[in-house]
Each structure stands twice: as structure tokens, then as C-alpha cells.
Here is the input.
Amino acid sequence: MGSNYAIDARGLVKRYVTKKRVSLLRSRAEVIEALRGVSLRVRYGEVVGLLGPNGAGKTTTIKILSTLLLPDFGEAYVCGYDVVKEAQRVRRVIGIMISVEKGFYGKLTGRENLIYFGYLYGLEGRELTDRVSYLLDLVGLSELGGSDRLYEEFSLGMKARLALARALLKDPPVLLLDEPTLGLDIPSARRIRSLVKDLARREGKAILYTSHNMLEVEQVCDRVVLMDRGVVVAEGTPEELKSRIPSIRTLELHLSNLPNGLIDDLRMMGLEVREYGQDQEGLYVIRVLTKRPEEVVDDVVRVVLSRGAEVSRLRIEEPTLEDVFVYFTRGREG
Amino acid sequence: MRSFLRQVKAEMLLVYAEVFRRKSVLVMSVVWPYIMTAFMLTLGYVAGSPEVFVRRVGADPVLFLATASYILFSTLSVVDDVMWRPVYDEQAGTLPYVVSSPTSTVLHYAAIPVPRFTLSLVLGATFLLPVFMAREGFDGLLSGLIVVAVSLVAALTFIPLAVAVGLGLYSLGGESWRAINVIRPLFLVAMGVYYPRWMLSRVAYLVTALLPPSNCVEVVQRLVVRLGEVNEVVIPLTLAVVLAVVQLYPMRRSARRWEVAKLREGVKV
Here is the structure.
């Protein structure tokens, strides 16, 4: 037993070597550093969000923890078991959900697919059939008629629900969920989010959760690990991370009109001002980015009024997780 | 053993759903033995003479070729299933969940061919037994049943070698349909279903005897020709079983090597 944490990864390094063809007969080896010393920990009863742009190394990390990929260096423990040396034991204590849109057999029904994987996971008999029925109810597939419908006829939302049910088949203490709500309709995504939260709170499961949806991560995760180009660039609760980014609180004004020269006047005051066009009601939206909006709000309103515009709405916006993401990853796209 | 039987149950669920819910597969499974035998008989009658066949081999060509086809499609399905499965699982996206399951890779791949060869044996028997009865009367039914039983042994004893070769090959060059297309005809020739094994040269005989099912093929051929003593049946069958037991070791090694190769490059999602 190597660790008391549910998940404990230390200094994971993974390089992929690919061959790039440079001419008809010659190819050159190209090394891609997917992970460059990633360390992270997840406690029981905690949902940790793994965030990062495409190519940051999120899926590689999940794969290593799922025993689907061997790291080049570093070590990782799941429930105290080494993911390399004790892979079979790790496999007994994890539930994984890696891709939502596939991963089952098309000619089997939802129930049969779960029974198939149940056999693979060492379940059988009454225990298996009862567990499958319970999970089909839990994820809401029974009410959607997915239990006895062929998987090839499933909608994406139903596929995602079935994938979560499979991850829970063994009732594992650790769940590794890679973008579990990607492309889902709102009811399915909400169901999955609420289940994930319940599983951590009520059953004490440790959950590592990757997503590109910042709002979702903020709603679901207790802690966030931000990755970029194979390293962890920031870690903490969403509130802690937000407090670490400077000068991005926003004073948002909705104006009846936008007089010429108003933006220039505000900028002359040394403020960073951005125009956002018109909102749904036809009001002009401008945002003033500043460290302390409450200190400049009076001056801003005075200048707006002096230019003959009316302030219909005004609010001070706190930074979002998306701002945190953009700040730490420098807005890099995958 | 319990774990293996659990795997077999899982595979039966999957394979029978695939066969019975896909009409084209079902029709082909039923019709295939007839097509294969008809083709071999047509080829035989066009290219040669049945009298010459009887003179040289000592067997009724219809029975010989029907039996050969039967044992061929039921046994070769073993290698087909073992080699086809990783390719299929990768395409279906199920491979990560199979690899990350606590079930051992060896047990999983050993169980994979069982449902299909069992089905092939049953479906094939619906054509083989009437052929035997038509040619030899009620005695033919008994002979046909013995052929079915020996074919079952052939398929079972072929599993370790099929897994060893299939996964061994994949661990070297990755999964591909091309590998199946190379391996299949090689096994087909080496098993010797379409020629009397005792007429092979000594070297060819010894080399092909390393394939457990080829020894079962010899038993069936001697039965059809009514050639041989009891020990000429028992020895090849024993040899097939002993070879299968010996080949369990390379089967384990190949499965382990394949798994490590997959984990090194990362199981595709």
C-alpha cells in the first residue's frame, strides 16, 4: 500500500514517439511530451476537476490511472495500489468512463451490455442482475426505455448514462470520468452531474473528472487541477484559484446609447474598457476591467452621464473559472 | 475454471446476439457449410475423377470433402475470432473497458472462440449428419457423431496456439485485418483437411503435427477411410491434447506481451 489518498500521482512523465514521414522512403522519429512531471492527489469523498486545453495531458493522466497506459517515469497509486506493479488490483477498485459516444456492443441491449461487462468484472448470478437493474434505474435508463433497447439505437444522452452505469458496476471507491457530459442534452448532463456529486457526498467515492465546461466544473468539483502542456499549472478550490488571478474583476454597464468619445474618455482615465455590442434588449454593453471596481464606479457613472447616456443596469462581476483557465493557460487553444 | 466459465457466458451473450440479431450473419452461418462443400465437390469433380480419388485415397470423395469442410470451418473460426476481436473492440471503443477489467487477458481470449465454434459445430452437424446417413445409413449417423465430437476436440485444442500466434503477431506489428488474411490460409494448409495426412512427406507430416487440430483431422480422415487401429485414433488425439497443454505457456506469454505492448503505446479510446 503506497498512499492513504484515493488517488496519488507523483511526477508522472509520458513521452510518445511518433514517426513523421519526411520523404517517400525516410521518416523521422518525433517525441511528444504528453506529461512532464504531473503530481495530483484526490481524497475519498472528493470530486476533483482536471482542466486544461486540448493536448494538456488530461486524458493521458486518466489513462495512466486507469492502467491503460504505462508511464515512462513517476508513480501513481489508486487506493494504495501501484498502477504499474499492481494493475490487476487497481482494476478492481476503479470505474472508468472514457468516451461517451462509443464503448459498447451495438447488437446488445443496455441491460445485456451491462451484464456482459459485469461478467468481465467478476460479477454473476443474482448479484449481477440485481446490480444491473439498480443501476439502470439510478441513471434513468429504465424510464427512458433504454434497458431493453439495442445500444445501436441509443441517443448520445442514453449512451452516456449507460457508460456511467458501467463505471459503477463494481461499486468502486474510485471513479475516473473523462468528459462525461461532452455533447449531451441538458437533462442528461444534469442527471450525470447530480449523480457524480451524490456519489462523492453520500458514498464517499473519490472522483477525478475532466471537462471543458467551466460552469459544470465549478458546480461539480470540490477542487480543480489545471494542466497545460503536460504540467500542473495551478491547483485549489475554485474560490482559491479565482483569488489568485489579478485585475480581472469586471464592472459591466448596460447603456441606453453609446455616445461618440465615451470609450475614449473612460480609457483616458487609465481604465481598460471593452465594448460588447448590444444585449437582447438592445442596450449597449461595456465592461471595465479593474482590480477594484467599487473604487471607480462613481467616476465611470459620472463620465457616462456627462456624455448623455443613461445607465440601465450596472453590476460588478466576480472572476469565473473560465477567467482562471484563460489566465493560467494564457488562453492557449489545443 | 469458474472465471473461465463466466467469460464463456459473457461471450455467448455477445456472439449469439451478434449472430441472431444480424440476419446476414445468421443466413451465412447456416448456408456456409453447404456452399463450402458444394464448392469443394464441384472443384473435385471438375478437376479429377471420383474413381481415381477412391483408388488413391480409399475414401468416398463426398464424405471426405464434406467432413473436411466441416472440420475446417468449425476449427478455423477459432483463429478468426481470436484475431478479429482486438480489431473489433478497438473499432467499437470497447477495448479500454476490456483491458481495464480485472479479468485476465488469457482467460478472456481463451473464452472468445467458444460460442462461435460451438454454433458452427451444431449448424454444421445439420448438414454433416444427413450426408453421412445418406451414404452409410444408420451406421453413418454414429460416424457423423464421432466426427462432431472429434471436431470439438480439434477446436478446443486449437485455442492455445491460436491465441499464442494471434496475439503474438499483434504484439509485434499491431492489430490489422491483413494479419488475419495471412495467418488464415497458412493454418488452413497446415491443418491438412483437404489431403490425407498419411500421404504427406515425413517432414511435412511432423511439422503439421505440431498443430493440435491437424492430429484430430487425421483421426477423422482415418475414420472416413475406415483405416487404422484403435491406437491410430488414440495416439493423435492424445497428442493433440498434450500439445494444447504445452502451448498454454506460449499462449500466456503472447497474451502478456500483447497487453504490455498495448499499455506502452496506450489503449486507444
Remarks:
- Residues 7-13+39-243 of chain A form a domain with the Rossmann fold fold (CATH 3.40.50.300).
- The CA atoms of residues 50 and 320 of chain A lie 16 Å apart.
